[in-house]
Amino acid sequence: MKPLPKEFDVLAIEEKWQKEWENMGIYRFDRNDKKRTVFTIDTPPPYPSGDFHMGNVLNWTYFDMVARYKRMRGFNVLFPQGWDCHGLPTEVETEEFYKIKKTDVPPDKFRKMCEGFVNKYIAIMKNAIILMGCSPDWTTEYRTMDPDYWRRTQLSFILLHKKDFIYQGTHPINWCPRCETAIADAEVEHETREGTLHYIRFPLASSREHLTIATTRPELLPACVTVAVNPDDERYKKYIGKQIHVPVAERNVKVIAESMVDPKFGTGVVMVCTYGDKADVQSVTKHHLPVIMAITETGKMNENAGKYVGLTVSEAKKVVAKDLEKQGLLEKTEKLQQEVGVCWRCDTPIEILERKQWFMKTRLLTEQVEKTAREVKWYPDYMKARLIDWAKSLDWDWVISRQRVFATPIPIWYCTKCKEIIVAEPEWVPIDPKLEKPRIAKCPKCGGIEFIPEKDVLDTWMDSSISSAVHAGWPDNKDWHRLFPADMHPSGTDIIRTWAYYLMVRNLALFDEKPYKSCLINGMVLGNDGTKMSKSKGNFTAAPDILNRYGADASRQWAAGGGATGSDIPFRQPDVEYGWRFQRKLWNAARFSSLLLEDYASVEKPRLELLDKWLLSRLENIVKKATEAFENCQFNIAIEEVRNFTWHEFCDQYIEAAKDRLYKPDVYGRESREAAQYTLYTTLYKILQLLAPVMPHITEEIYQTMYKDAIKSPSIHSTVWPSFDKSRISREAEEYGDLVMALISQIRREKSEKKMPLNTPIKLLTIFAEDQKNTLILNQAANDIAGTCKTEKIEIIAKKGKQGKPVEGYADINYIAEY
Ligand SMILES: [Zn+2]
Ligand SMILES: [Zn+2]
After folding, report:
1. What's the CA-to-centroid distance between 415 and ligand 2, angstroms?
2. Measured at the alpha carbon of residue 793, what is the angle toward residues 791 and 799, in degrees to the nearest 5?
3. 3-state SS, residue 715
């Protein structure tokens, strides 16, 4: 065995192994291996934002620990890596950078501009993933913006269309007027904002009476299609069925009864506009009301708004209010805190517009989603409710078309003459209908020969919600079902309603099968003030600052140990620093061991002494606990158990107690030294293995120097996870060892309290052991006690002492140390 050097450079060691692992290819998935059981991880393809934050450090550490643990457990692990490239943020950045709008340049040119940003950001994020010591199989790397991936997304669209899960329809949808695109319910965020409640008088037709309506959206008066009151509201019952005049719009509508109206909100009279909110959408359907759209796709008033045409929504709000005031119809205004739906990307309040869109029938599957979600194993279990509650809360089907450019094209054309929809055949994809014609001579319905391409594109979640099938090799590999459903789908609390849900609903529709067998959920990373980390709040820590300063292994210890799986965890730099110090402690213990194991030759049956048995029994308990914790994805428990054992029992207690035996075979005998060597060798190796999923670099460095020649495995990460050795468990050894350790610690404590160096010799140590049994125990470890406490003479007496210093935790045992 080679000795470890005294000093070590964490960052240099980490970089070295990151390169070496890739050269060794030890993390590659072996598709041809039919012997080992496969374990597939549905790695989330990250969105290349170029920003790798502490949240990424947390979730990447989770996936990577699982991958490493499972490999050591003997699985053939598929840990793929892709990039979810398409999306609004890149388009917005491209528009801002080039100072253009998406429509200013041809779509393929705009695409190319977007790709430039994506490639740059992929390089940054790939570097960060490597820097963290993650172990994906880089030969599987893919990008959803490549035509080879579109092919799969488009094929899934075509198949779902054939199965009647996809339809085109004109329905109300969430619309971002800034991004000029439809967005799904999952992309609408809810914020509390201050609004103004306007109390507006609606005169009743052919009467001098009026009803007052409180609304935050007076600009929607031109889109008002009815006025509603609760049928049980005594104040207004008599007006039901009467005609009422809509100010500004200058037309009459009917007053209707609607039980959804809350008599306590505002005045208890509401106007129904198309559309102010989702309740309006429901009323329109229920009462067969007409639809008058007054807002354009860019958020301006249209010709239906009369003289307000061309104004923005917020301009119109002010002008309409002024006009009402002039007409004496504005009773009063008051401030109001209200919940507003805003665009996830740009925070602009969304509008509800009607526009032709493509939808996927998702609500149809809600029951099946719920049933399947219950079959999936969730870590932690309570997270499944989030998916189920979300699925049940959806009012609308999934709008899958977007009015953007940088996304997978919808493989559809329309016949110019008869408007027939031509869907691409599976063999045609990948295809961009804007650049290519359908591969048919004429329209099957009318024989027309001209076609207009579908310009809309697919929602990005249409790309990423087939990830587990694509990872398995769908549709090209005949045996893709061998790797599907994924064994583990890692997700975050923030993307359960998108990624975990869309995958579920999509795969149930496509393959009638769940996409994943288990789901591992990570929480969010909070700033040091306990709130969500954000750059604007000043509680933000950039991941590269931490990784470049402390390295990956220390950062990963924070991620693994920061809190229970699924809970939000604060970023605490002291935790990373603790991880850093722990590495130093581990290194020092390993270096000490390497020096004393230089001449170590494995012994068949070492004659173990009490403290050897004590440590080995403790070690097996830790193997058991850590294994159970990894099996249940309780990473914080695993790391805490192993670190505490290593730091306190192995380093502080055992090594100190066994030092003399190891240094002085002439005094204590060769066998006594061999037993301590055996214990050191065995314990350190298992510790390294248990820590390897969390701290892959330093454990590898120590393994390569100290163990590789004997163990013969090319890397610690390809060694076999330690199995729990029950024969090593000895309650007696643990009980007795605890007593000895308590005595040793007490004496060492006494020396430091007296400000004496720890190696101050004790001339005579008299121990009053209470009874015969304790005397026997202490006698077994007399060498270790004498060695550790530097005792020249030791006397163990089988009775209670009177003036001695008691041993903590053992009230009837005490001792007198004479210096
Ligand atoms: Zn937006
Ligand atoms: Zn036709």
Report:
1. 5
2. 105
3. coil
CB atoms within 10 A of CB 422: 22
Distance of CA 55 to the CA centre of its chain: 8
The dihedral region occupied by 398, where left means phi > 0, alpha psi between -120 and 50, and beta the remainder, is beta
Question: Between helices 107-131 and 10-24, what is the axis angle to 10°?
Answer: 120
Ligand nearest to the CA of 421: 2
Q: Residue 571 in contact with residue 565, Cβ under 8 Å?
A: no
For ligand 1, the distance from its centroid to the CA atom of residue 177, given in whole angstroms, is 7
Which ligand has the nearest atom to the CA of 299?
A: 1
Q: What is the dihedral of CA 785, 790, 793, 798, to 10 degrees?
A: -30
What Å distances lie between residue 763 and 137, 789, 816, 818, CA to CA? 62, 11, 11, 6
Nearest listed ligand to the Cα of residue 450: 2
| DSSP state letters, 311-336 | -BHHHHHHHHHHHHHHTT-EEEEEEE
Distance CA 653, CA 644 (A): 12
Mean pLDDT split into 10-residue runs, the chain, 819 residues: 93 98 96 94 92 91 98 98 93 92 90 95 94 97 96 98 96 91 89 94 92 95 96 94 94 94 93 92 91 93 94 95 95 93 91 93 96 97 96 92 94 97 97 95 95 96 97 95 97 93 98 98 89 76 90 97 94 95 97 94 88 97 98 98 98 94 92 95 98 98 96 97 96 95 93 92 93 92 90 91 86 91
d(CA 382, CA 385): 6
Taking the CA of 174 as reference, the closest ligand is 1
Angle, CA of 121, 122 and 123, to the nearest 5°: 90
**Cβ partners under 8 Å of residue 531, min gap 6:** 537, 539
Query: 347: CA distance to ligand 1 center in Å?
Result: 6
Rounded Cα–Cα distance for residues 696 and 715 (Å): 10
Q: Any idea what DSSP says for residue 646?
A: I
Q: Give residue 480 CA to ligand 2 midpoint distance, Å.
A: 39
Nearest bound ligand to CA 180? Answer: 1
Tell me, in angstroms, the distance from the centre of ligand 2 to residue 439's CA.
15
| Cα 445 to ligand 2 centre (Å) | 5
Distance 414 CA to ligand 2 centre (A): 8
The alpha carbon of 417 and the centre of ligand 2 are apart by a number of angstroms equal to 5
Farthest-apart Cα atoms in the chain, separation: 117
pLDDT at site 467:
97
CA of 510 to the centre of ligand 2 (A): 29
Specify burial of residue 124 (Cβ count, 10 A radius: 0-12, 13-18, 19+): middle
User: Distances in Å between the alpha carbon of 440 and those of 415, 425, 453?
Assistant: 11, 10, 14
Distance 422 CA to ligand 2 centre (A): 9
Q: Would you call 528 helix, strand, or coil by DSSP?
A: coil
Ligand 2 midpoint to CA 450 (Å): 8
DSSP, res 295: B
d(CA 62, CA 633): 8
Tokens of 48: 């290349």
Of all ligands present, the nearest one to the C-alpha of 342 is 1
Residues in the chain: 819
- Structure token digits, residue 413: 């054309």
Cβ atoms < 10 Å from Cβ of 787: 22
Output the CA 299–ligand 1 centroid distance in Å: 11
Q: Which-ligand-closest: CA of 88?
A: 1
Residue 456 Cα to ligand 2 midpoint, Å, equals 20
Tokens representing 631 are: 């099996």
List the strands of the sheet with 762-768, edge to edge.
791-797, 762-768, 810-818, 805-807
Ligand 2 centre and the CA of 410: distance in Å? 19
Q: Which residues pair with 766 in a beta bridge?
A: 795, 816
Non-local (6+) Cβ contacts of 783 within 8 A are 609, 660, 661, 668, 672
Q: Distance, CA 459 to ligand 2 centroid (Å)?
A: 28
